[in-house]
Write a structure and sequence with these properties.
By secondary structure, this protein is mainly β. It has strands at about 5, 10, 20-25, 35-40, 45-50, 55-60, 65-70, 75-80, 90-95, 100, 105-110. It starts with a strand and ends with a strand.
Length: about 110
């Protein structure tokens, strides 16, 4: 059974940084494409970033240059480093490895 357990997130001021973690069990993350998504109140869930099994990365235009996705195969964990955070980054963030979602973690950017 695949489980994805997220940690990180919280409240940060504009311009600040946070790191999200997604630890997996029941699956070897290095063999799959892993994605980060986010859902703001009243909006659809949208893709933020993903990393392939080969290490290729993708970023949504809205986070390009500010967010970095990475994977630690030894820890079977994927990270999303978020810098220069903006209020519009406020959302619940989810990691995803088909067909399993993490539990979600709230990120709030506010002064």
């Amino acid at each position: 059974q695949v489980q994805l357990v997220q940690s990180g997130g919280g409240l940060v001021q504009p311009g600040g940084s946070l790191r999200l973690s997604c630890a997996a069990s029941g699956v070897t993350l290095g063999h799959y494409r892993i994605g980060w998504f986010r859902q703001a109140p009243g909006k659809d869930r949208q893709g933020v970033s993903c990393i392939s099994s080969d290490g290729d990365t993708y970023y949504a235009d809205s986070v390009q240059g500010r967010f970095t996705i990475s994977r630690d195969n030894a820890k079977n964990t994927v990270y999303l480093q978020m810098n220069s955070l903006k209020p519009e980054d406020t959302a619940v963030y989810y990691c995803y490895v088909f067909p399993t979602w993490g539990q979600g973690t709230q990120v709030t950017v506010s002064s």
